[in-house]
């Protein structure tokens, strides 16, 4: 990962980044954008040069805009004029991503931070830099070299005193590392990414942090304990399903949060097979599982005083002679049964087992599940916004607020009472995929049946849409976004402060 360090007196600066901001209500003839006063003393000749440059380059000062000026025979030899817009955390996050994209050809960039800048700005800036600089590589793939390859190795943040910013930088680091881990898991092709492989990656990553325990249930044990949903979905694959349980149990915890994430390592749709175009990216169908395990590891890295258990029910939904069939009735952990109307509605079947298990055996105070559950998420809300469901206004609002602060987007949709009847089956307790009603809402209503006494302490997030980015944009990079890691860490961090 790119090195980001707080420094007081940088010397030998090669590329100097100076923040600039728009001037609100500036009169005609007055500058519309001005340099921000920095902790680092900027030499007068540079101040003069910047004042001359700003109007000419038509910099707006908006966050995300960076102008790069080359000064071949002077020091520093590059100036980056970095728009910071409103100067809030989100603006600094956008600025961080933009500095990375404008500065990949520099080996080192020094950013002169505004005098008395808030720690949140450092958090945003660092997250923007670390997330935008992510690139997925196959385990055996060398780093790119040659013309055009990024060479940026370090970013120095020049401040008058590092002390107030150390904690913000550490939070940003843990958040970015966890998000990058989730992206790695999600981007990995399914030829490599079997349920077993996923479980091994979690165990290996958890081993870097003291206090995390990882348990993995294999098919025999899943059968012995009655995890019929996970077994049914996994039955068509030569690579058996798993249930990963990772827990963080700090001594000072007041609250126990259970996180459940959908972990379909590839979704063909099963016998209700998907069309070609809809199937080609289905290696991403474990983005929920990736987010919950990565957030738990991130919480351990930050030593958050909240007890967390993450459950990742993992299965590969394949087409074969041993696959489960549309119309089969399966028995979930705890005894509820589903008539599996469509084998492509597999995510809810594995989540149902894991949620019922959580409620029955883990006695959580809160249950949050994340899943790439329905194409309907994108139909309703477009490609960047997750759908959030909860019967608790308070919980929904708290998680939505965390989402916004973290720089992720979600919108609450209703657990519509008038659709509940569509779940009724003549052969089982529930239809897994009724054909009436709204797809994402129906999936949420189905899952609610497995929340037992946690019905009012449950949040479900359908993050099918924002789990993937079609191209680089701000702090997102093409491919897996790691959606949910930032939201969960933000929310868990706030819970630990409150309680
Ligand atoms: N994994 C898919 C949902 C999905 C679609 C995720 C697009 C990401 C992008 C899920 O298992 C699925 O196939 N859902 C069905 C549900 C239907 C059969 C009730 C869907 O959305 O069509
Ligand atoms: Mn499916
Ligand atoms: Zn799926």
**How would you characterize the largest beta sheet?**
9 strands, mixed
**Secondary structural class:** alpha/beta
Q: Which percent range describes the beta-strand content?
A: 15-25%
Briefly note the CATH topology name of the largest domain: Aminopeptidase
Q: Let me know the CATH homologous superfamily of the largest domain.
A: Zn peptidases
Ligand names: ligand BES, manganese (II) ion, zinc ion
Summarize the structure.
By secondary structure, the chain is α/β, with parallel strands linked by helices. It is 34% helix and 21% strand.
Give the SSE map.
Layout: E1 3-7, E2 15-22, E3 33-35, H1 44-57, E4 66-70, E5 78-83, H2 89-103, E6 108-112, H3 119-132, E7 154-158, H4 166-187, H5 195-206, E8 212-217, H6 219-225, H7 228-234, E9 242-248, E10 256-261, E11 263-267, H8 276-279, H9 287-301, E12 307-317, E13 329-331, E14 337-339, H10 347-362, E15 366-371, H11 376-381, E16 386-390, H12 393-406, E17 410-412, E18 430-431, H13 439-448, E19 458-462, E20 468-469, E21 479-480, H14 485-498
Helix pairs in contact: 2-3, 3-4, 4-9, 7-10, 9-14, 12-14
The structure holds ligand BES, manganese (II) ion and zinc ion.
Residues 264, 267, 285, 346-347 line the site of zinc ion.
Describe the protein's architecture and organization.
Helix 4 packs antiparallel against helix 9, helix 7 runs antiparallel to helix 10 and helix 9 packs across helix 14. Helix 12 links the parallel strand 16 and strand 17. The chain folds into two domains: 160 residues, 3-Layer(aba) Sandwich (Leucine Aminopeptidase, subunit E, domain 1); 324 residues, Zn peptidases (Aminopeptidase). With 499 residues, it is an alpha/beta fold. The protein starts with a strand and ends with a helix. It is elongated, with a radius of gyration of 24 Å. The strands form four sheets. Strands 8, 9, 10, 11, 12, 15, 16, 17 and 19 form a nine-stranded mixed beta sheet that branches. Strands 1, 2, 3, 4, 5, 6 and 7 form a seven-stranded mixed beta sheet that branches. It has a three-stranded mixed beta sheet with strand order 13-14-18. The protein is built from 14 helices and 21 strands.
């Amino acid at each position: 990962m790119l090195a980001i360090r707080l420094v007081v007196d940088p010397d030998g600066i090669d590329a100097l980044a100076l923040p600039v901001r728009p001037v609100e209500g500036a009169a005609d003839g007055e500058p519309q954008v001005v340099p921000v006063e920095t902790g680092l003393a900027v030499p007068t000749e540079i101040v003069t040069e910047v004042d001359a440059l700003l109007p000419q380059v038509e910099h707006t000062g908006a966050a995300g805009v960076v102008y790069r000026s080359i000064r071949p025979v002077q020091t520093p030899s590059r100036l980056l004029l970095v728009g910071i817009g409103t100067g809030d955390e989100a603006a600094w996050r956008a600025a961080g991503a933009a500095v990375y994209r404008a500065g990949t050809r520099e080996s080192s960039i020094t950013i002169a931070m505004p005098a008395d800048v808030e720690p949140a700005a450092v958090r945003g800036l660092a997250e923007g830099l670390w997330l935008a600089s992510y690139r997925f590589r196959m385990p055996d793939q060398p780093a790119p070299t040659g013309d055009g390859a990024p060479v940026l190795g370090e970013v120095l943040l020049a401040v008058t005193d590092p002390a107030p910013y150390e904690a913000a930088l550490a939070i940003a680091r843990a958040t970015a590392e966890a998000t990058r881990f989730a992206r790695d898991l999600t981007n990995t092709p399914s030829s490599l990414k079997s349920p077993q492989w996923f479980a091994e990656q979690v165990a290996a990553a958890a081993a870097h942090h003291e206090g995390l325990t990882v348990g993995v249930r294999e098919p025999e044990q899943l059968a012995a304990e009655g995890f019929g949903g996970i077994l049914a979905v996994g039955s068509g694959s030569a690579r058996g399903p798993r249930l990963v349980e990772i827990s963080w149990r700090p001594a000072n915890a007041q609250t126990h949060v259970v996180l459940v994430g959908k972990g379909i390592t590839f979704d063909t749709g099963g016998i209700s097979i998907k069309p070609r175009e809809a199937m080609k990216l289905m290696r991403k169908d474990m983005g929920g599982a990736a987010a919950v395990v990565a957030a738990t590891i991130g919480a351990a890295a930050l030593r958050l005083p909240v007890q967390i258990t993450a459950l990742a029910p993992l299965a590969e939904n394949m087409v074969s002679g041993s696959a489960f069939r549309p119309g089969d009735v399966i028995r979930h952990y705890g005894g509820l049964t589903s008539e599996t109307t469509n084998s492509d509605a597999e995510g809810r079947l594995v989540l149902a087992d894991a949620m019922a298990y959580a409620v029955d055996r883990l006695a959580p105070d809160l249950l949050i599940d994340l899943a790439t559950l329905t194409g309907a998420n994108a139909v309703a809300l477009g490609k960047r916004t997750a759908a959030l469901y909860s019967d608790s206004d308070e919980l929904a609002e708290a998680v939505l607020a965390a989402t916004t602060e973290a720089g992720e987007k979600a919108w609450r949709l209703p657990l519509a009472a008038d659709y509940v009847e569509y779940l009724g089956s003549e052969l089982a307790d529930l239809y897994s995929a009724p054909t009436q009603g709204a797809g994402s809402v129906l999936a949420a209503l189905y899952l609610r049946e497995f929340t037992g006494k946690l019905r009012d302490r449950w949040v479900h997030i359908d993050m099918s849409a924002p789990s993937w980015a079609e191209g680089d944009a701000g702090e997102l990079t093409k491919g897996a976004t790691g959606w949910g890691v930032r939201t969960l860490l933000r929310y868990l961090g706030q819970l630990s402060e409150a309680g």
